[in-house]
Prior knowledge:
The chain is of the alpha/beta class.
Amino acid sequence: xxxxxxxxxxxxxxxxxxxxxxxxxxxxxxxxxxxxxxxxxxxxxxxxxxxxxxxxxxxxxxxxxxxxxxxxxxxxxxxxxxxxxxxxxxxxxxxxxxxxxxxxxxxxxxxxxxxxxxxxxxxxxxxxxxxxxxxxxxxxxxxxxxxxxxxxxxxxxxxxxxxxxxxxxxxxxxxxxxxxxxxxxxxxxxxxxxxxxxxxxxxxxxxxxxxxxxxxxxxxxxxxxxxxxxxxxxxxxxxxxxxxxxxxxxxxxxxxxxxxxxxxxxxxxxxxxxxxxxxxxxxxxxxxxxxxxxxxxxxxxxxxxxxxxxxxxxxxxxxxxxxxxxxxxxxxxxxxxxxxxxxxxxxxxxxxxxxxxxxxxxxxxxxxxxxxxxxxxxxxxxxxxxxxxxxxxxxxxxxxxxxxxxxxxxxxxxxxxxxxxxxxxxxxxxxxxxxxxxxxxxxxxxxxxxxxxxxxxxxxxxxxxxxxxxxxxxxxxxxxxxxxxxxxxxxxxxxxxxxxxxxxxxxxxxxxx
Length: 513
Ligand code: UN1
């Protein structure tokens, strides 16, 4: 199937060959090695990008540092006004950008649109936040003393985003960072450079119209071979927000930690749904299918395990297999499709290797696990989503396979379900389907789910931007997006002001000189 998106590429300012370096308004001609971007849906070359070099990077950092000195002094609500305009501009480009996300990354068009909607939503959220960057006031133990804490801009925020959310992850970080008075350098995944270039073209108009200094929002499109350790070790970047695998995240955490920089790490998940005898089974089925095969299983919040009570297990399994047997798999931009391709053939190989491991470790494959061939599947990136019956302790089950591979695990006692649920190294998202108050409350209690996100009667994926997003254990530990996640993007300061004519010491210490 051929779908022509040349009109959308033109609208988004994507040429055959693009430069990978931007400081907000200006694009810099780069001499870095070219990366070609192919659609996993039809294998067509979309366009290519000349990557940023180390020299480009240093120039970007210099501009960003200069820009920060100006930007931090712009009143926060005025910074919010720029973000408001970015949100308006994104609304105009929702369809073409959603289409490019879908075509370059492989998620279906509906999800591409949803991703741009998340960008718009976080802009709206950040505009409100720009008037709410507040701290507490405390009563001092000393007479005529006042104490409060306040938040100052931090500096350059380095945002490293993964291929699976080519545009939204940047927005969650960048829009909050902007209202916080920070400047941003974005290093996107080399699998989806074109989406990042399109986003920068969209925001450039707003930055230009408002005379925002060069360097407030920058892009360095460079693979880790061109620019990796240097970026993470750079003392000019006080906060690195990294989304990616646990393996790379540990390395990033080490490099930033060595220089005592701050990190927000949004790494792997091994997200489970507990389905109890009290569950609404229809709702649970729909949530499990969307969670497991949405984005072809390539969300960090994807449902990887379902822990199902004995009494409903067989019925749930059979109904799930029937649904899986009918899933429309195809081109991400075909509106009939519910399951698009994996991002590339490397992801397909990883998927097939995981299926083999499941079998070798004692699991029973119930459906799926194959590569599709023939008409419409020429790119080699299409697979049939799999379900396997396993035990939770298998090595492969303990690992995150970034593909549509769903594990079924049985339980008989509720406490056992919670134990199985938590017995993995990761801790991002979790859910329970139950209408029994004692079960749902226990799941949300101190002895319940150990994840950063815990849901009742909704699935593990598809979080709204209004809540802080992130996880525990090997998921990394930071939070981005909504709630009070903005605090991580700012420098906290405690202030004590003495308006008396005495100098009393705290703790009643006498020290008379
Ligand atoms: C990710 O996969 O990196 O909750 C983020 C969700 C999306 C975000 C996923 N809002 O599924």
